[in-house]
Design goal:
Structural class: alpha/beta
Shape: rod-shaped
CATH architecture of the largest domain: 3-Layer(aba) Sandwich
Number of helices: 9
Helix content: 40-55%
Number of strands: 9
Largest sheet: 6 strands, mixed
Strand content: 15-25%
Order of helices and strands: EHHEEHEEHHEHEHEHEH
């Protein structure tokens, strides 16, 4: 548990046992002088002894607490595995505005981001042209903020630069040393921008060892299942079709399970030592008791 006060040496508190026993069985034997006014002396010193006993027991208790070494432990997990690197390719063409498809995609992709805690994620958006909106990063919050601000048509509304998006996205992994490199391509259309041939895009993906999961959303004729199937097959991924929000959510859940990061973590414990506080208070009480004793003897 974070911010929990614990004692490094709790056995120190056992010292209180012989101390208590000595209060009863180790009393010093002293000679006694009897005065007829002793009853009045006891009454006069009763209040003084009570205060001194409070100070004495407080000092002992505080010293024991200091010796037991109270600390606040903060556990810090440091990940020693890079996890996965995932590029999300989202179609933002004008057709994605129909039936609130783009808003649904943003919601589901946002949920997917929340699940990939230890992975680096990048975001590529395409329409008439493709561009890398966010390079590979661990900062999921920034991706979600940007994703929420995007609207269908942000990259043009007339065409679908699908192959260009694949090519640009694959270059994100150029200097990657990740064990797993994945791209998830979502579209409701067919490529109609011819600046990057499909074979070139696939060759680049294979060059960097990127597995592509393709997702076609919409009805028959909206996207080309043969092309999406080819991209997935040649890169070792899988092709999915979705015609409802629930189905799209299931697809992203399936991909999440298929490509789950197995991260090992080193745990470091940061300790904040608190012994100085009870020790300082104990020293203050000792000084107070010392002056009080000297005043009585004066």
């Amino acid at each position: 548990m974070l911010n929990q006060i614990v004692f490094e040496f709790p056995w120190v508190f056992l010292i209180i046992v012989p101390f208590i026993l000595c209060q009863f069985f180790c009393k010093a034997k002293m000679g006694a002088l009897y005065f007829p006014t002793v009853r009045f002396l006891k009454k006069a010193t009763k209040k003084s002894l009570f205060l001194e006993n409070i100070l004495k027991y407080s000092i002992i208790s505080l010293l024991l607490i200091s010796l037991a070494s109270p600390v606040i432990k903060d556990e810090i997990s440091i990940k020693n595995d890079k996890g996965y690197e995932i590029s999300l390719l989202v179609d933002a063409s004008g057709s994605m505005a129909q039936n609130s498809k783009f808003d649904i995609v943003k919601e589901i992709v946002g949920d997917f981001l929340d699940k990939r805690v230890h992975d680096k994620i990048g975001l590529t958006v395409f329409g008439d042209f493709a561009y890398v909106a966010v390079p590979l990063t661990y900062d999921k919050k920034s991706i979600k903020r940007l994703l929420n601000r995007l609207q269908a048509g942000v990259a043009g509304s007339r065409r679908t630069a699908l192959y260009e998006a694949l090519f640009l996205s694959s270059n994100l992994f150029k200097n990657s040393h990740a064990k797993k490199k994945i791209a998830i391509l979502l579209t409701d259309g067919m490529n109609n921008v011819e600046n990057i041939p499909l074979d070139v895009a696939i060759k680049t993906l294979k060059k960097y060892g990127i597995k592509v999961y393709t997702v076609g959303i919409g009805g028959v004729g909206d996207f080309d299942p043969a092309v999406l199937g080819k991209i997935a097959k040649e890169t070792g991924g899988k092709f999915f079709q979705a015609n409802s929000k629930q189905r799209l959510k299931e697809i992203y859940d399936t991909i999440d399970k298929l490509e789950k990061s197995k991260i090992k973590a080193n745990k470091y414990v940061k300790k904040r030592y608190l012994f100085a506080y009870p020790l300082s208070l104990a020293l203050f009480f000792i000084v107070l008791l010392f002056f009080r004793k000297n005043r009585e003897l004066a």
